[in-house]
Amino acid sequence: MPADPLDEALAAHPEARRVAAARLTEGRASLVVDATGLDAAARGALESELRDLVARVEGVEDVRVALTTEKRERILIAVGSGKGGVGKSTIAANLAVAIARTGRRVGLVDADIYGPSQPRIMGRPEKPEAIDNKIVPLAAHGVRMLSIGQLVAPGTALAWRGPMASTALGQLLDAHWDDTEILVIDLPPGTGDVQLSLMQKWKPAGAVIVSTPQDLALIDAARAIDLFGKLGVPILGLIENMSGYACPHCGEVSDPFGSGGAEAEAARLGIAFLGRVPLRIGIRESSDAGVPLAVGDGEEAALFGALAERVIHAVNQART
Predict the structure, then answer these.
(1) Which of 52, 68, 84 lies at the terminal end of a domain, its last residue?
(2) Are 148 and 302 in contact (CB under 8 A)?
(3) Cα separations (Å) of 283 from 187, 206, 225?
């Protein structure tokens, strides 16, 4: 039972759990309220509601509300590759959606400054708003997302030097992510300025490397792994993409890019092998349509769900 009329009034509010302390002394009600995870508008609304609620309590002449926030550590997961064309962006988008389906609040940052793909893959090409000089991410398939591709005209070539690209990355990462717990960052291929800026200023909890099974891709993937290692970013594991193709007519499985190369390379380097993603037309079609397959309930969704669980497990191990 509430101890007094002030506690009784507060207990009726749906956000009563946020009231850390409440005291009524000589007509003055003082509240300490945890506003962690609320944006500016929600904080203002909560404060106004509590003031109005408490002001109606008998004996209250003045109401003072102190809002506090707890700084939460946001987990950054980098998704990289040694070279382009290995399906890194498709993997990053589906991983973000699959992780969000586990109940976590997830954001997706398209840091591939020179070749942003996420507006198309996630189906959100429109320009986001800005509040207080910070960009507001767009919602897509249970994920919040931002891409430089949403901020420039379609088809525009970005002839930016390293510092400009790093500044753009900073604007994406310092956006209004609010209570987002995990940011999946789709990096450009290779080992350039954007990767260095990310790891030096916003150190990820770990990196997922994407490669096809062929030797040429694996050579470049090993270089990306080496860069992350030198800068102290744990490698969460290696994903083999475009691994095997089943003919839709006869069902025969062929391996146009080879088979098992990424798993063998992971074993050679002493890192985790997270799994394989087959070469399937459905994955390509869903990416072009702006609806990642991880959204659904089919075989591919289950595959990305399993990859997401392995990535989260690897993150937890890396942080302990």
Answers:
(1) 68
(2) no
(3) 20, 25, 26
Look at 125-129, 232-236, 280-284, 294-298 and tell me which has the smallest mean pLDDT.
280-284
The residue among 20, 45, 68 that closes a domain is 68
45-74 burial, b if ≥16 CB within 10 A, otherwise e? ebbeebeebbeebeebeebebebeeeeeeb
The CA–CA distances, whole Å, from 282 to 27, 193, 260, 279 equal: 66, 34, 22, 9
- The conformation of residue 290, written as its DSSP 8-state character, comes to T
118 and 9, same domain (yes or no): no
Region at 133 (left for phi over 0; alpha for psi -120 to 50; beta for the rest)? left
153-205 per-position pLDDT tens digit: 777 766 666 677 778 888 899 999 988 999 999 998 876 777 788 777 888 99
Helix (H) or strand (E) holding 236: strand 235-241
Domain match, 93 and 163 both? yes
| DSSP state, residue 198 | H
- How many CB atoms are closer than 10 A to CB 228? 21
Domains in the chain, number: 2
User: Which residues form the domain of 59?
Assistant: 5-68
Cα-Cα end-to-end distance for the chain: 41
CATH value at residue 64 = 3.30.300.130
